From TrEMBL:
Residues 55-95 form the Glycine zipper 2TM domain. InterPro entries: Bact_OM_lipoprot/Surf_antigen, Gly_zipper_2TM_dom. PROSITE patterns: PROKAR_LIPOPROTEIN. This is Glycine zipper 2TM domain-containing protein. Pfam families: Rick_17kDa_Anti. It is a lipid-anchor. The lineage of its organism: Bacteria, Pseudomonadati, Pseudomonadota, Betaproteobacteria, Burkholderiales. It comes from the Bacteria. Keywords: Lipoprotein, Membrane, Palmitate, Signal. Its main location: membrane. It is found in: Cell outer membrane.
Length: 155
């Protein structure tokens, strides 16, 4: 029983959203995107803090409560079950936050019109360098930066 509950916690947390530019959400497929040209000014490593949606705490509380309630008689089981639920919620919350934390990059961009923009996105397969031409793809309010195709690179 414990293994099943722990497996459900891991599956729940694994389904959380990502900001990886190489992963496109199903709802964004087959949508027309706007594309802008820019040049990379700088790239720095950052960490996107993990989420605390409550799913980890809830799942941890259930696992801890069920596990604790099996200890001793009915009174002891109730007390240990409550303590297990509280401890499980704290552990589940910390687990969710740790599992959903992402290594990312903050990219400072020079737009063609002279404006500067910055975006944070999870590290993808591409490593962008200062001075490199890129495109900014905006789909449904979500933006990602990727290396410009050779046909659109300016000299």
């Amino acid at each position: 029983m414990k293994k099943l509950l722990i497996a459900s916690l891991v599956a729940t947390l694994a389904a959380c959203s990502t900001s990886n530019p190489d992963v496109i959400q199903r709802g964004d497929a087959q949508r027309l995107s706007t594309v802008q040209d820019a040049t990379v000014l700088s790239v720095r490593n950052v960490t996107v803090d993990g989420s605390q949606s409550g799913a980890g705490a809830l799942t941890g509380a259930v696992v801890g409560g069920v596990a604790g309630s099996t200890v001793g008689g009915s009174r002891e089981g109730l007390i240990v079950g409550v303590l297990g639920a509280v401890a499980g919620a704290a552990i589940g919350n910390a687990t969710e936050r740790g599992v959903t934390r992402e290594d990312a990059v903050e990219i400072l961009l020079q737009m063609r019109n002279g404006e500067r923009r910055a975006i944070v996105q999870a590290k993808g397969n591409e490593t962008l360098q200062p001075g490199e031409p890129v495109i900014i793809v905006n789909t449904g309010g979500k933006t990602r930066v990727m290396r410009a195709p050779a046909a659109t690179r300016t000299q």
